[in-house]
Amino acid sequence: MQVGEFKVLNEYKKARNAVLMTAHGQIETPIFMPVGTKATVKTMLPEELTDIGFQILLGNTYHLHIRPGEKLIKELGGLHKFMNWDKPILTDSGGFQVFSLSKLRTLTEEGVTFRSHIDGAKLFISPEKSMEIQMDLGADIIMAFDECIPYPATPEQIDESSNMTHRWLKRCQQAMTKKDSLLFGIVQGGLEEKSRLKSMDQICSVDLPGYAMGGFSVGEPIHLMHQLLEKVAYKMPVNKPRYLMGVGTPTDLILAIDSGMDMFDCVIPTRVARNGTLYTWQGKVTIKQAKYRTDPNPLDPECDCYTCKNYSKAYLRHLFNTGEILSSRLNTIHNLYFYNKLIERSREAIRNGIWDEFKDDCLERFSRRP
Amino acid sequence: MQVGEFKVLNEYKKARNAVLMTAHGQIETPIFMPVGTKATVKTMLPEELTDIGFQILLGNTYHLHIRPGEKLIKELGGLHKFMNWDKPILTDSGGFQVFSLSKLRTLTEEGVTFRSHIDGAKLFISPEKSMEIQMDLGADIIMAFDECIPYPATPEQIDESSNMTHRWLKRCQQAMTKKDSLLFGIVQGGLEEKSRLKSMDQICSVDLPGYAMGGFSVGEPIHLMHQLLEKVAYKMPVNKPRYLMGVGTPTDLILAIDSGMDMFDCVIPTRVARNGTLYTWQGKVTIKQAKYRTDPNPLDPECDCYTCKNYSKAYLRHLFNTGEILSSRLNTIHNLYFYNKLIERSREAIRNGIWDEFKDDCLERFSRRP
User: Fold this and answer.
1) Does the CB of A170 have a partner CB in chain B at under 8 Å?
2) Whole-structure pTM over 0.95, yes or no?
């Protein structure tokens, strides 16, 4: 396969199983990308991510631009070499963080001026600047610089913002000159079907190797996203990967795959792991609970991860309660293993024509409280 | 070899290379034991300790007694099973922590009443109680409960305290009924040769499988310890392991081995790693320094650890500056690897009759500032 080539291998109703070729190898969808915000997936070594089965990870343009800076990373051979990861990397455009983390934003047609959330330094990102940063990082998949519309917003705000995101996308396409990287456009348009479809038409009229759905995880009730995706996701180009940005829980992933989305990233599995919340095939576990004090059993008897194979719930609770770094490590290993296994099983279920049964079983399991 | 058997294999002047058999296998001295305070060597998996080459680790009686409690650990199969470590474990007696961490201590002939540094709970440890805790934990080597004399102290205080430590040792010997565990006595006696030798006579008059030097790392100038060890360490029984408790830097280890000590433990390599200080064969490195910002080289070109084989100083500096957990992990891996390699090379140097050259080379290297 050539870089950028995307082949749908299996379909089950709207759900798809496909492959995409990148400059650092092929990835198979549906796929979950762990988030390596600052050139590390928190607590994890690259080899541990590979052992779990991850094929691609995400780096954050905004964070890496601020520290240590993309020029330093470029000088040291690019993000892959810097962080010792030789598989594909997708970088976001910085748009989401500029709108969620930075202070004193000023938005113009040219771009966004803002102050760093770390030291207050005045910074400017435009579509061209975002492309330059991502090319310097050496990302395999580069995301367009878009405006992330806040929730709620008026129809006029949404329309105006989506139009600008479209104009910015054309500037991104002009500026993205790295031959072996793949530029993905981002559909915005808020939570209404009509405005979302209008943005989709605009964004997908620009010929690109992939498209994303953005503008979620901004405080909206999550069922609104799922209702919308059910109506619009399958209308995205069928012969291109469809990436749902920044989402979500195991239930969210299942529903989004069911609507026809292919690619996912989210900080949830790693972040909640550090806070002692663990996803299992019997539901969500809060490890600090007193009932686990003397529990000699593994977190999840159906799980083959390193944590479940070697440690008791009593030990995991002890590590969490004493604030040990090993708690974050063992919990992160488990949650990432769980997410990857969920996605692997999703692929198999689509391949084997049992997606509906698998989906229903997952949704029932994930609503349990063990 | 039988459990408790100790064989000196090689000697070079006062320095020794020996083996000691425990219920969980043999260890070879000189040996460094990483500290697993709360049933984990901070940031590390047991397998990673084994890969580095560690043969034994240390657990802290005081900390484990407070959280999660030795009865819970016993119920779950002992400390080895609880923390997934099947090699030997040595536990300290709790004495050092009772005197350094706890609040409102009251010392009587019977034992020590004190308040937990975590929740202020009133607790009592006696020689018998310390033995019970360590037996419940299932330690292979159990340390006698002693009084750690503060520095400075008057000759009268030292004499009185050493006498009590001796009486307590006899009670420990009575109470330690676990057949396959080895009880080590602890020599106190302060920093004067005469009083230290008196305590040594008392402690070593109790027939035990090993003896330790305690009462250091209490704020005394370190050269006083080395001057004392040079004069007294070799007078400890030659056919028993000699353990220097809670010491020290790489330089301290070399000097203590040179004086005839065999076993060591210390939190230094793990603690300073988390604070960004790294031991190398070219001297001590402070990774946050600006001069490493763009440095593409490994921390130590003479080191074969995972960190040095895979990451640049620029990346290690970035991880430290952004407060990433991976910084603590990679730094700890390096420092522990360095400590173990230092000890392995010490054994070889004694074996090969080149200890003096090795010692001089180490002392010169460790005084450098790269």
Assistant:
1) no
2) yes
Chain A partners of B83 at a C-beta cutoff of 8 Å?
315
CB atoms within 10 A of CB A187: 29
Q: Pick from B23, B26, B24: which is nearest to B6 by CA?
A: B26
Chain B residues touching A82 at Cβ < 8 A: 312, 314-315
Look up the CATH architecture of domain B6-266: Alpha-Beta Barrel (3.20)
pLDDT in tens, A198-237: 999 999 999 999 999 999 988 899 999 999 999 999 999 9
| CA proximity to A35, closest of A77, A117, A92 | A92
**Which pLDDT tens digit goes with each residue over B68-82?**
999 999 999 999 999
B295 classed as catalytic: no
Give the minimum alpha-carbon distance from B76 to chain A in angstroms, rounded to a whole number: 6
pLDDT in tens, A154-198: 999 999 999 999 999 999 999 999 999 999 999 999 999 999 999
Distance of CA A60 to the CA centre of its chain: 11
Across chain B, which distance is largest between two alpha carbons, in Å?
61
Q: What is residue A100's three-state secondary structure?
A: helix
Determine how many CB atoms are found less than 10 A away from the CB of residue A27.
23
Active site residue A361: no
Q: Which residue of A has its CA nearest to B332?
A: A325
Buried b / exposed e over B190-211, threshold 16 CB at 10 Å, is bbeeebbbbbbebbbeeebbbb
- Please, where in chain B does CATH 3.20.20.105 lie? 6-266
* Amino acid in position A92: D
Stated as kind and residue range, the H or E segment containing A188 is: none
Euclidean distance between CA atoms A232 and A308, whole angstroms: 39
Q: A47 φ, ψ to 5°? A: -65, -35
